[in-house]
Amino acid sequence: xxxxxxxxxxxxxxxxxxxxxxxxxxxxxxxxxxxxxxxxxxxxxxxxxxxxxxxxxxxxxxxxxxxxxxxxxxxxxxxxxxxxxxxxxxxxxxxxxxxxxxxxxxxxxxxxxxxxxxxxxxxxxx
Length: 126
Prior knowledge:
The chain has five helices and no strands. It is mostly helical and 126 residues long. The chain has a domain at 47-72 and 81-121. It is elongated, with a radius of gyration of 38 Å. The protein starts with a helix and ends in a 5-residue tail after the last helix. The model has no long low-confidence stretch (mean pLDDT 76).
């Protein structure tokens, strides 16, 4: 640790020397002056309009593809099921007893929804 401290103390006293410092400074200043003298290039109006329209079209297409992906996605085990829609669809393969059970389940769910709405709105005076 002492060796590093000694080295640091020695380096603090020395000023760095750059070979050709004046030439380096002149080169940098010449480059800066050249960039300041240049005028900005005018972009044609039609090019900026095309850029804007294509950007908007890309965003709309992206939103459309995301929407279509979600609409046509295959249902998985985690997909929520709307039991009211399932109960309303009468299947051809179902027996009369199964159809009856579907209708009863639909009635139970509708009644449960109605009761929950009544409990929720009971606290409010309209």
